[in-house]
């Protein structure tokens, strides 16, 4: 009976020769990481940043040139005020030197005499 049990046992569970395979570790499939930005978004963001940087450089350059022009205008205004002050001073000096009494005293000092004449001041008429 033991023989029959062994035969039935072998019939019920056939033994297959096991092949020994080199067991290579199968790479585990890691979940694919989704990038934060797509390629198109990266291009758009890069273009936007470059555009903002270029505009910033243009604004700074324009501001610098405006400041330079303002300084030049202030210097010219200062020069104009100085020239106007000199003109006013010279105009007052001309008025003082053209006083008829002064002219008569200088004429008498140099030996000129006025005979029964009326001294008038000639005005520049436009």
Question: What does it look like?
Answer:
- It is a single chain.
- The chain is an all-alpha fold.
- The chain has a domain at 48-110.
- It has three helices and no strands.
Structure, briefly:
One of its GO terms (cellular component) is cell division site. The protein is mainly alpha-helical. It has helices at 2-12, 39-97, 100-109.
User: What's the count of strands?
Assistant: 0
Low-confidence stretches: none
What characterizes the major β-sheet?
A: none
Query: What is the overall number of helices?
Result: 3
List keywords for this structure.
126 residues; mainly alpha
What is the topological layout?
Elements: H1 2-12, H2 39-97, H3 100-109
């Amino acid at each position: 009976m033991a023989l029959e049990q062994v035969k039935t046992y072998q019939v019920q569970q056939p033994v297959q020769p096991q092949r020994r395979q080199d067991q290579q570790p199968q790479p585990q499939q890691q979940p694919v990481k989704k990038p934060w930005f797509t390629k198109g978004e990266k291009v758009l963001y890069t273009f936007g940043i470059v555009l903002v940087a270029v505009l910033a450089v243009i604004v700074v350059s324009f501001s610098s040139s405006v400041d330079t022009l303002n300084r030049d205008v202030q210097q010219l205004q200062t020069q104009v005020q100085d020239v106007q002050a000199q003109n006013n001073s010279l105009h007052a000096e001309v008025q003082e030197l053209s006083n008829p009494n002064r002219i008569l005293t200088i004429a008498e000092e140099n030996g000129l005499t006025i005979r029964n004449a009326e001294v008038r001041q000639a005005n520049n008429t436009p």
